[in-house]
């Protein structure tokens, strides 16, 4: 059970960091 939660957490973290990266690149390229 704990491994499942850990996997979900790492997946969510990767998704959030990916979105932040895309957002940052979009904002930078718009300038």
Helix tally equals 1
Distance between the termini: 46 Å
Helix/strand order: H
Largest sheet: none
- What amount of the residues lies in strands? under 5%
Properties at a glance:
single chain; 31 residues; mainly alpha; 94% helix
Description of the structure:
With 31 residues, the chain is mainly alpha-helical. The protein is built from 1 helix and no strands. The chain has one helix spanning 2-30. The N and C termini lie far apart (46 Å). The mean pLDDT is 95.
List the topology elements.
Layout: H1 2-30
Task: Provide a brief overview of the structure.
This protein has 31 residues and is an all-alpha fold.
């Amino acid at each position: 059970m704990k491994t499942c939660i850990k996997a979900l957490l790492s997946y969510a973290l990767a998704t959030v960091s990916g979105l932040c990266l895309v957002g940052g690149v979009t904002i930078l390229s718009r300038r």
